[in-house]
Design brief:
Blueprint lengths: L2 H13 L13 E6 L14 E6 L8 H7 L10 E7 L11 H8 L3 E6 L9 H8 L3 E4 L3 H7 L1 H9 L3 E8 L4 E3 L11 H11 L4 E5 H7 L10 H6 L11 E5 L9 H4 L6 E6 L2 H6 L4 E2 L2 E2 L9 E4 L13 E6 L5 H10 L4 E6 L1 H9 L5 E7 L8 E2 L9 E6 L2 E7 L1 H4 L1
Parallel strand pairs: 3-4, 4-5, 6-15, 6-16, 8-9, 8-15, 9-10, 10-14, 13-14
Antiparallel strand pairs: 1-2, 1-3, 7-17, 11-12, 16-19, 18-19
Helix pairs in contact: 3-4
Bound molecules: NADP nicotinamide-adenine-dinucleotide phosphate.
The site of NADP nicotinamide-adenine-dinucleotide phosphate (NAP) has 26 residues, from strand 6, strand 7, strand 8, helix 8 and strand 15.
């Protein structure tokens, strides 16, 4: 591994710090190093890095800008190289274009992990840097950078939330036994892995029967390295992922106890007309509907809006979808509501709907090698390309598949 690759890995490490706070923006880290300290054969020491930056929070400075802000105004940038895992932006968004900032500072060389996946802007930042005479190296650890930001890649290419399916099944292919209590299928290693994954998504989605039967908390309960690093900014405590429940006919219970199971906001998705039937709700009033007090305090009813549901003030929302909506349609609406990535945790019917609708960016099956349930709920049939066995976590074999957009 060369110097460029080592510094790019450091960018990815730094980018993880913004992980649960920058969505729907990508995870980006940047490093500034001095050329004279980078002799061709010298092995770099991280203390030789001049400055580091990362995108820490949606709406705040991009990684490159954060890095520049950490240095004195009169800092001498001559002979420096900037490393960043995603192409610097060339458009004015919530912050000024990063490519222009790098040009103004007189940075000599820029090493970039991957192009911006948005076809409208891809290459524009690189072209701007090159036109200013900056040497640009593109594609260092490109595959790793693409995989790292695969959720953002899917958002940009398909304009919908990234969708990850996950379930646990017994050695005889069942998701739950006949006992009224939920069957314990996975061991603690798999459990920890699931919670680490939860720390990386904006929302966790379940079907109404799972919500009613399991009373799931759908929160992050294990302090794993990834989750801890994501929460490094303790001055801004982070809410748990949004809980999305698919409840077409609004037959679920949403009382205070169920709302309090997590501090993550709750989004109840129902089909057009159900609120009138279930709650005697009157007509739509702008973006809200009147449910005649059928829901507890704290539940706000909405139709589609541009609201950011993750950080919204009310804890629970009702979202109306048209009759027979498809899962890609729902994922599109969720992205509009600021949810860029969703982990679908079950049950079998809801997982099958995503598989049948071809709305899967990655799938993870945790198959027990010891638990046998004999009778119960059959796990969904995975009809996509062959799964790969990633690893064994305790007594659970981890099988997975990633879409091309995730690994290309
Ligand atoms: N092993 C695991 O990893 C795991 C994970 C989660 C759950 N589970 C188990 O799975 C079981 C529940 O699974 P399940 O398959 O019976 O139910 P489910 O998938 O949790 O919920 C299915 C229900 O969701 C409703 N629904 C809402 N929107 C829908 C839509 N757009 N299209 C279709 N249906 C929609 C339907 O009810 P309506 O027709 O009334 O709308 C449907 O019957 C529980 O026993 C639970 O313990 C296991």
């Amino acid at each position: 591994m060369g110097l460029d690759e080592i510094y790019m890995l450091r960018c990815l490490q730094l980018a993880r710090r913004g992980m649960s706070r920058v969505s729907p923006n990508p995870w980006v880290g940047a490093v500034l190093a001095k050329d004279s300290e980078l002799g061709a054969k010298a092995y770099p020491k991280l203390e030789k890095i001049l400055a580091e930056g990362w995108h820490a929070r949606f709406g705040e400075a991009h990684a490159e800008q954060a890095l520049l802000n950490s240095l004195p105004v009169d800092f001498d940038y001559s002979g420096t190289t900037l490393y960043v895992n995603l192409e610097p932006c060339a458009h004015v968004g919530k912050t000024p274009p990063c490519a222009n900032l790098l040009i103004e500072k007189g940075i000599r060389r820029v090493v970039v992990g991957m192009l911006d996946p948005n076809p409208q802007v891809a290459g524009k930042g690189i072209a701007l840097l090159k036109s200013a005479g900056i040497a640009v190296e593109l594609g260092v650890l490109e595959k790793e950078c693409m995989f790292f930001n695969r959720r953002f890649v899917v958002n940009q290419l398909f304009e919908r939330a990234h969708t990850m399916l996950k379930w646990a099944e017994s050695s005889d292919g069942l998701m739950d036994g006949i006992d009224p209590n939920r069957s314990i299928i996975s061991g603690s290693d798999a459990h920890h892995w699931v919670h680490e994954q939860r720390a990386m998504v904006d929302a966790i989605l379940v079907g109404i029967d799972t919500w009613q039967k399991d009373k799931p908390r759908l929160n992050i309960r294990h302090g794993l390295p990834g989750a801890m690093e994501a929460n490094i900014d303790s001055t801004h405590p982070q809410k748990n992922p949004v809980r999305v429940v698919l409840d077409r006919h609004l037959r679920g219970q949403y009382d205070k106890e169920s709302l309090a199971r997590s501090d993550g906001n709750l989004l109840i998705v129902y089909e057009e007309g159900a609120a009138i039937k279930a709650y005697g709700a009157t007509a739509s009033k702008g973006t809200t509907i009147d449910c005649n007090g059928a829901l507890p305090d704290g539940v706000t009813t909405i139709t589609k809006t541009g609201k950011d549901i993750k950080s919204a003030e009310s804890q629970a929302y009702l979202l109306e979808m048209p009759k027979q909506y498809s899962m890609p349609m729902l994922m599109k609406v969720l992205l509009e509501l600021g949810i860029a990535s969703v982990m679908v945790e079950g049950g079998a019917k809801v997982l099958a709907m995503f598989i049948n609708d071809g709305c899967v960016d990655e799938v993870h099956i945790l198959r027990s090698q010891t638990v046998l349930l004999e009778k119960g709920l059959k796990a969904p049939e995975w009809t996509g390309p062959a799964l790969t066995q990633e690893s064994t976590m305790g007594n659970d074999a981890h099988w997975s598949w990633y879409s091309k957009a995730s690994v290309s």
